[in-house]
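Re: that chain you flagged

S.,

Sorry for the slow reply, it's been a week of failed gels. I finally had a moment to sit down with the sequence you sent. For the record, here it is as I used it:
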Amino acid sequence: MSSPFYPVHGAGLGLRRAMLKSLTDQAASSVNFWEIAPENWIGVGGRYGHQLRSLTEKLPFICHGLSLSIGGPAPLDEAFLQRLKRFLAEHRVRYYSEHLSYCSDDGHLYDLLPIPFTEEAVYYVATRIRRVQEILEQRIAMENVSYYTVIGQQMAEIDFLNAVLQEADCDLLLDVNNIYVNSINHRYDAEAFLRRLPAERIRYIHIAGHYQEAGDLIVDTHGAAVIDPVWRLLEQTYQFFGVIPTLLERDFNFPPIAELLDEVCIVRALQTKYSKHSRDYVQHA
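Prediction finished late last night. Pasting the structure tokens below so you have them in one place:
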């Protein structure tokens, strides 16, 4: 099998407006790639718009969407997709991903809700993903999401995810933290889940922190540092699939930028470690 295409390389960080004030040129260039939610930036001018432009002119960027609502009952917002297409081109964005969930009906619900794990939903969602790829004229990645309840389940989560990726012929944004969160909340084996993912479809990885509500309940907040079990799951991911571009997400409770960069450095150190292991394996195989 040939090596998969990666739109970026190394260790990345999600860019939020709260970071801009303390983000120096040196700090910005120390991260291999950045990710933004396009909904938060499309049409933004003034100081923020200028800052974004100055960054996208110099550094690799990916977009991770919030409002596509790929599993929602309402028609796709094709006018938004046209605006998104122009934004991606304007800022030379390397890649676009979204959540395998829904967030709207007649209006936005401001939460990412789970799609029923059914065959009907597989075909419904896949048709919509293919339409998005047609409009944007590029492949996109769907992210495995955290969820807290299951409605009308007919398939296991992993079977649903794989079926959608296959039917839509799209890529995967692998969120390692979401696998860990779901494995605790829904009591399944995270390593077994990982092993069943299609390696050739993984384009990049998310890693993040969460909130431990109880021993058997974790809330996916992106508001804390990454914990050791999630770091270990990332290591297992590199062991199974090789080193893949990996991005740290942080959405609130922002520490000093230096602390976020320290976590990015942990990602980079693990990538270096497992790149070496991969080379050693090839040399001795």
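What I noticed first: The chain has ten helices and twelve strands.

Talk soon,
D.
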